[in-house]
């Protein structure tokens, strides 16, 4: 592929994606995602917003220290303290990038920044110069660019490139643009900004009207060569342009994009999608393009018949192209640790020696309960073991009684630092009784915001996965638990969430 047609994939799952309500990840979880993104072969990973919190700074640093494939970017407002924080966190990155931004639209200038055009321009130029003195790779984003006066935007882009920006990103911050209009804006920049060829044009589209991917593609057709996106399209509000959709459109419809393509290994799309969904607690809808559970399922008889006779009658992509195994039955009782570890790696998990040992033990136990083990079961085991939340409180015993003529009652015994605590409580149902008992032991008050039970794989003996979202002392956290018993899975998920309070940051700068 020649450089002209290379579309750079800038993944911001860890920054813009993590801003989805309740999707906060801690350092260890972010590292897991970053490693999976590196294996997916994205070009740039936006690891976070270092000034936002010490936790964010730490996570960006950990990712920058470890990865040596992709460029690692950190976000900064056009302020000295932000730029210094980003440069500090990226100090050991092999290929660092500072991503600086400042809003340019009239509505943001007037109401948010209360500054005139020339002041904004000066602040941006100074910020880029400051960042360029610390880092050779600088991206600049005029926030709300799609609602900025095009003439001013051109003047602005020219000035930041002159100051040293090597990538200029044109965000549709509020998801307001239409494809034709957004494409025309990119074309305008391409033709009217005299020094535009000194920088890469990037697109950044939110999904408020469901047009994020369409707008992104219009950007590419009009000269953009970097796209910003997230796994599963997660992001604030209605989300963001989905990486997997952009990659597969370019691959499947190459001819409509002048041969443009990405360097992404599409066979890793499904594993990464699952990893992100389980670490953030943000599930993928069944009918989601590319990575939804039903994306390759042919239910109608006519379709099934057609696909069996000739796959291309109804299938434009092969399941294997996106990493979906034809048969996802993988391992059994007699599989060895090596095969087990290999399969986990294939699914996107990097476990340490000790974690792998524990995971293998659990796998063996599960094999006794369940005849067939699916990828999803392995993922559930691995997720459970990634020491993502310190297990401060451990579940020792759980006894619940419920029924239509009894008062739901739960007795819970928890262990912390070797000491055992026990209490009992009633509730409207068995789950409420269980959480009330836990609250009494720990001495907390929580508000349960979401509670979901699903089956991890298929069959009667399937493991149940419970995801909870709750609020505790102003923090929004999620937790998950698995077990073949869903009440136990609920207790584990609840405790997992409670233990996460304080390990994730919840408020943005
Ligand atoms: Zn954004």
Quick structural summary:
The protein is α/β, with parallel strands linked by helices and 509 residues long. The chain is 39% helix and 20% strand.
Highlighted features:
eight-stranded parallel β-barrel, binds zinc ion, single chain, globular, alpha/beta, 509 residues, three-stranded antiparallel beta sheet
Description:
The protein is 39% helix and 20% strand. By secondary structure, the protein is an alpha/beta fold. The strands form four sheets. The protein has an eight-stranded parallel β-barrel, surrounded by eight helices. α2 (54-66) packs across α3 and α13 packs across α14. 47% of the residues are buried. Residues 16, 171, 173, 204, 206 line the site of zinc ion.
Which distinct ligands sit in these coordinates? zinc ion
The total of beta strands comes to 16
Whole-number mean pLDDT: 89
The main pleated sheet reads as:
8 strands, parallel, barrel
Topology overview:
Layout: E1 8-11, H1 27-40, E2 44-48, H2 54-66, E3 71-77, H3 80-89, E4 96-103, H4 106-113, H5 117-134, E5 138-143, H6 150-163, E6 167-172, H7 179-192, E7 200-205, H8 212-221, E8 226-229, H9 243-252, H10 269-280, H11 301-309, E9 329-331, H12 337-346, H13 353-369, E10 373-374, H14 375-385, E11 394-401, E12 409-416, E13 419-426, H15 430-442, E14 446-455, E15 464-472, E16 475-483, H16 486-500
Parallel strand pairs: 1-2, 1-8, 2-3, 3-4, 4-5, 5-6, 6-7, 7-8
Antiparallel strand pairs: 9-10, 11-12, 12-13, 14-15, 15-16
Helix pairs in contact: 1-2, 1-10, 2-3, 3-5, 5-6, 6-7, 7-8, 13-14, 15-16
The protein binds zinc ion.
Residues 16, 171, 173, 204, 206 line the site of zinc ion.
């Amino acid at each position: 592929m020649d450089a002209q047609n290379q579309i750079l994939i800038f993944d911001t799952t860890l920054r813009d994606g993590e801003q989805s309500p309740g999707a906060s990840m801690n350092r260890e979880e972010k590292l897991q995602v970053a490693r999976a993104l590196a294996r997916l072969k994205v070009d740039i990973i936006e690891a976070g917003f270092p000034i936002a919190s010490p936790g964010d700074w730490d996570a960006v640093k950990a990712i920058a220290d470890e990865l040596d494939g992709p460029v690692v970017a950190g976000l900064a407002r056009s302020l000295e303290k932000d730029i210094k924080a980003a440069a500090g966190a990226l100090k050991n990155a092999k290929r660092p990038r500072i991503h600086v931004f400042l809003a340019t639209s009239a509505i943001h200038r007037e109401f948010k920044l209360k500054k005139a055009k020339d002041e904004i321009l000066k602040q941006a130029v100074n910020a880029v110069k400051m960042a360029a003195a610390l880092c050779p790779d600088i991206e600049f984003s005029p926030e709300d660019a799609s609602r900025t006066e095009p003439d001013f935007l051109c003047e602005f882009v020219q000035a930041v490139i002159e100051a040293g920006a090597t990538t200029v990103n044109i965000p549709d911050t509020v998801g307001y643009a239409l494809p034709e209009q957004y494409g025309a804006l990119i074309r305008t920049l391409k033709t009217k900004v005299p020094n535009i060829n000194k920088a890469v044009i990037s697109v950044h589209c939110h999904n408020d009207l469901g047009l994020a991917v369409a707008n992104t593609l219009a950007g590419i057709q009009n000269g953009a060569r970097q796209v910003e996106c997230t796994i599963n399209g997660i992001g604030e509000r209605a989300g963001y342009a989905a990486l997997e959709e952009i990659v597969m459109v370019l691959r499947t419809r190459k001819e409509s994009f002048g041969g443009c393509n990405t360097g992404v290994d599409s066979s890793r799309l499904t594993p990464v999608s699952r990893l992100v969904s389980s670490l953030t607690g943000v599930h993928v809808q069944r009918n989601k393009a590319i990575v939804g559970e039903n994306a390759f399922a042919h239910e109608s008889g006519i379709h099934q018949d057609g696909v069996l006779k000739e796959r291309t009658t109804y299938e434009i992509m092969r399941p294997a192209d996106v990493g979906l195994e034809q048969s996802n039955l993988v391992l059994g009782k007699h599989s060895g640790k090596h095969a087990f570890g290999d399969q986990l790696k294939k699914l996107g998990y990097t476990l340490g020696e000790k974690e792998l040992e524990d995971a293998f033990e659990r796998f063996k136990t599960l094999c006794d309960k369940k005849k067939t083990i699916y990828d999803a079961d392995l993922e559930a085991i691995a997720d459970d073991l990634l020491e993502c939340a310190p297990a401060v409180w451990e579940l020792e015993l759980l006894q619940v009684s419920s029924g239509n003529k009894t008062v739901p009652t739960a007795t819970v015994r928890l262990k912390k630092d070797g000491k055992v605590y026990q209490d009992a409580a009633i509730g409207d149902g068995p789950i409420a009784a269980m959480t009330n008992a836990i609250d009494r032991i720990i001495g907390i008050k929580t508000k349960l915001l979401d509670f979901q039970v699903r089956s991890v794989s298929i069959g009667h003996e399937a493991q149940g996965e419970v995801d909870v979202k709750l609020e505790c002392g102003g923090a929004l956290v999620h937790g998950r638990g698995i077990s073949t018993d869903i009440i136990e899975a609920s207790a584990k998920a609840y405790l997992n969430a409670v233990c996460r309070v304080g390990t994730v940051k919840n408020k943005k700068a």
